[in-house]
Amino acid sequence: MRILTLASRNVRRNWHRSLVTMLAMAFACGIMIFFSSLMEGMMLGSEHSVVSMNMGDIQIHAHGYRDDPDLYTRIDDADELIVALEAHGYRAASRIYAYGLLAANMASSGVQLRGVDLAHEEQVTELFKHVDKGAWLDENDGNGVVLGKKLAGTLGVGLDDELVFVGQSSDGYMANDLFRVRGILKSVSDGIDRMGVFMPMQTLRDMMVIPDGAHEIAVIRTDRTGDLAEETAWVEALAPNLEVKSWKQLMPVVARMIETADVQIMIMLVIFYIAVATVVLNAMLMNVFERIHEFGIMKALGVSPTQLVLLVFSETLILALVASLAGLVSGWWISDYYEVHGIDMSALAGSITFGGIAFDPVWYGAVTADALIYPVAFLLIVAGIAVIYPAIKAALIIPVKAIYYR
Amino acid sequence: MLIAFFLSVLLGAFIMSAALAVHGDESNQDRTTTILRAVDDLWRGDSSYAVVTMQVKTEHYTRSMRMEGWSKGKEKTLFRVLEPLREKGTMTLKSGNHIYTYLPKTDRTIRLTSGMMMGSWMGSHLTNDDLVKEARLEEDYDATIGFEGMRDGHDIIEFTLIPKPDAPVVWGRLMLTILADSYTPVLEHYFDEDMELARTFTFTDMKMLGGRERPAVLRVVPADKPGEYTEFIYETLELNIDVDDAMFSTQSLKRR
Q1: Are A212 and A64 part of one and the same domain?
Q2: A23 and A86 assigned to the same domain
Q3: Which chain A residues touch B129 with a CB distance below 8 Å?
Q4: Partner of A198 at 20 to 30 A CA spacing, among A89, A150, B41, B164?
């Protein structure tokens, strides 16, 4: 008996009901693909905001620096370490930090000076693309600095305004110099927005009398598919006697939020597909009850219960396959659109910050294999489970009773 | 607190006088007031000029700085760095509760904000806050005599100063030791809010300064870093001299 031929004919015979069932399944599948891609997009976007903006995948500090950011707690052989890291396929940039007072006109504010190794930094982070007004740092413009967004507001300065820094250099003297606002950043993270003053590393080294060493090394992986924890351990082996932490260890709140996004997708899948399952169950039960007379005749002609089960399953499979194909195409299409265009949330939320990190207010989808496969696979499984009861019902029919069933 | 005594010339701080509330019975109260007033008198002057050398030793650097300072009244003080050359001309103006710094390298004057107050003053173990707050001690502390008699071969009086309940101070308690005969300060201990010793001031090297015997050296030692210190050494001290009020204005910082 050609079950598939029979099944496809049965599907077409009551095509109204088949169409409605398929549409319901396709709609659920498409929506779930869209939702998954948005969640994946949020996960990737968040990770991107954290990692590529300033953090890097892995950070190296001297022990104790993160608890007490002391000018003297430095990584002594930072340059050698960066060469070693680059030889192992990582990209790394060293940074030096100093604290002090920045004044403009009569306003002033405590600031964190961030000396940036421009050539390396641009390979590691994308901060240089994140300038709101003006331009990013330039090695040839030693006294041109880039300020955090809120800091510029606190000081009431715009581009090309003059700034005076006063602090204490590492040899105990008063460090002071005149700077000029070269650029103002977009919102990056709470710390940078409020206190960040970026300048070329050599400028800061000269002013604070820090001839060598670094306070921080940010490392980024060229191949981002590997296991972060494992690679953190490798970097740790390259940097003995230093504190090596992955961004997930440095920003546990954000990391946890991103990890729980997977769970959110699963919960949404389950809720949606319970609804889909009732639709499938209802349609197939109707289908079976309508055809009890027919099934009775089939059984009387020698069709086995197993073949009847297979028949009902095949009908459902055809419905589900067509529906998932439609859902896949529509879901993919919508997701792809939002992967390119994004949803602009800035009208709703202004700037979005979480755990001290500013996130891109435009929410992009991400069409990943997971976002496509899970909704389709779930649909097929759920349809299969929902049809078990109708199929058994059909298989257990007693031919004599069924033939006279009206 | 005795930084205020010692640097009163520089800081223009005249503390502890009659305004200081004293506990105890009538006669004791009188006596405490009298003694503290006498200690205060040691440093009294309506205006002053001084040359002081500051030496700082920390784990990371040792530095020396020579500066001159003028004061007038309680609230106005001006310092100017004489040496080293790298910082020559740097000026600190204290006017009321504000501190302004003039930076010759940049030719700019900036006002220190509250956020900078706990920062080190000129790389020493004193904070900017010390410069401002010291002048207000009389309003913030209650004094009692804790010990009187011989200690280490000297006849001394030890005062305990407890902050008043709602006083905006960071210290839990101060202990001030003076010589009983000359009312010269010897030692001062600062205790933090957990009553742990935070820093010790020592006064030594009696010398003729401004027409009287005064301790010429003050050493500040932070309790958590016993190997570090800041030392102030007086070279000259002139009291009750003519000082123009206009000197203590931000406009005058640039002109000098």
Answers
A1: yes
A2: no
A3: none
A4: A89
In angstroms, the separation between the Cα of residue B109 and the nearest Cα of chain A is 9
pTM of the model: 0.72
Could you give the CA distance from residue B209 to residue A404 in angstroms, rounded to a whole number? Answer: 128
Whether residues B108 and A103 touch (CB distance < 8 A) is answered with yes
Average pLDDT for residues B230-251, to the nearest whole number? 82
Distance of CA A110 to CAs A46, A133, A167, A177, Å?
Answer: 29, 22, 10, 15
What residue type is A344 in one-letter code? D
Percent of chain A with pLDDT over 70: 97
The pLDDT of residue B45: 66
Sketch out chain B's domains with CATH numbers.
2-255 (2.50.20.10)
Nearest to A385 by CA among A293, A320, A324: A320
Query: What is the helix (H) or strand (E) element at residue B185, kind and residue range?
Result: strand B185-191
pLDDT higher for B122 or B187? B187
**Domain limits at A189?**
58-223
Average pLDDT over residues A68-96: 83
The number of angstroms, rounded, from the C-alpha of A274 to the middle of its chain's C-alpha atoms is: 27
Q: Do B60 and A178 touch (CB under 8 A)?
A: no
Q: Is B230 on the interface with A (CB under 8 A)?
A: no
Q: What is chain B's length?
A: 256
CA A350 – CA A346 distance, rounded (Å): 4
Q: How distant is the alpha carbon of residue A374 from its chain centre?
A: 17
Give the tens place of pLDDT for each residue, A128-141.
Answer: 888 888 888 888 88
What is the length of chain A?
Answer: 406
Q: Measured between alpha carbons, how far is B6 from B131 in angstroms, rounded to an integer?
A: 12
Question: CB–CB of A129/A121 below 8 Å?
Answer: no
Q: What is the mean pLDDT of residues B109-126?
A: 76
For the stretch A262-312, pLDDT in tens is: 788 888 888 888 888 888 888 888 888 888 888 888 888 888 888 889 988
How many independent structural domains does chain A possess?
A: 2
